[in-house]
User: What shape does this take?
Amino acid sequence: MRRLFDDELEELDSDFTEMGLLVADRISAAVTAFTDRDTQLADRVINHDHEVNEREIALEQKSFEMIALYQPVTTDLREIVTILKAVSDLERAADHARNIAHAALKVTDKERIPELEALINQMGTKTTQMIRDVLTAYTSVDEDRAKQIAQIGQELDELNHDARNLSYEHMKSDPEFKTAASIYVNVAQDLDRIGDYVTNVCEWIIYLKSGRIVELD
Amino acid sequence: MTEKILTTHDLHLYYGNKEALKGINLDFNRLGITALIGPSGCGKSTYLRTLNRMNDLIPDVTITGEVKFQGRDLYAPQADTVEIRKEIGMVFQQPNPFPFSIYENVVYGLRIAGVRDKSVLDEAVEKSLRQAAVWDEVRDHLHESALALSGGQQQRVCIARVLAVSPDIILLDEPTSALDPVSTSQIEATLLNLRHDYTIIIVTHNLQQASRISDRTAFFMDGELVEVGNTKEMFLNPEKKKTEDYLSGRFG
Assistant: This one.
């Protein structure tokens, strides 16, 4: 039997996916702005950050309404709880994209460190792919896929570690690099944090599927 | 281990040739609230009525299997239904106060049992009405007709009437389905207090009611017990797909 609730849930799901894709685009744009030193693009990311926040609030309100009006139980409830938790993780991920865009503005007149830029590019690609994958894993309620995606979070940890070591080496070898290297360290740190937030979403997908609350890191 | 106060084993019930209960195995621990849920015609009310032999009154009913209350077979030839219904009381869907005063309604069972002492009766009236959470509303009208009360008050007086004879188990068959939301929540609050002193088994169509007040839920369908378990777990993560579909309103 098709319920009114199913239509509303479908709408909620597609709004959630849209928000997720928007966040992935923001991260990708912020990293491009940083590595290409494109201040216009960085400004755009910063000026449009409110859109992600507005979507988060709209999704939360819609979820509260559905809980109040339909009093869902079992997987219906878990699905709404998953969205409620995942949207705040995505919103926080977008905050880190905004940080990266701010870093892009600060780094423009500093020394370039190509090896670090390559690492950051790699981390950027991984995080945006992680978000796109996690949205698919959510839609198909794929617990195994969620676990695999969380593994990428650990790869990001390692890359962040490499980026940090590389920055310190540059700082030591040439004090000229000091400011630039510390900006690179922060950006790598932001991307690592984004990986942590996506890992949280993976945990909620496992909850959605199984009803179990787990820790994946 | 928690003591089992009531056990049913391989319980079948037939209305003529129609098998309404298809071998139910379900036990109840002492105290707490168990909710029986399921779509209309699933057998939950029929099952409830077997627990104090209310189905005896229906012609052409055949019951096989076993119902034991504190180890005693309720369907043994020597079992006394009047005694059983004192120990296992029932509250019905429609409040059914007798056309007497509130006082006489509450002491009805005691009078039948031969209690004459006015102080004993007075005490039972106050205690039962307090337990049923209706004392404050009716204490000044005890000798007025129970029929003059609101539906919610009548239902609580009916609960008091059951409590007056000190049962161990209280069966309730959709006790709030004829009541407004405020009366419903008063009855629910009453039951939540009573669960510390009585074993309560309630049939309800209101799933939120089951999830709000019961410790354990049993889901019936087509005369079978599909799933029984801790209410919280069942409403968050039921074991069976059928239970999931019913709880989330996909059928029924």
Notes: The first strand of chain B starts at residue 4 and ends at 15.
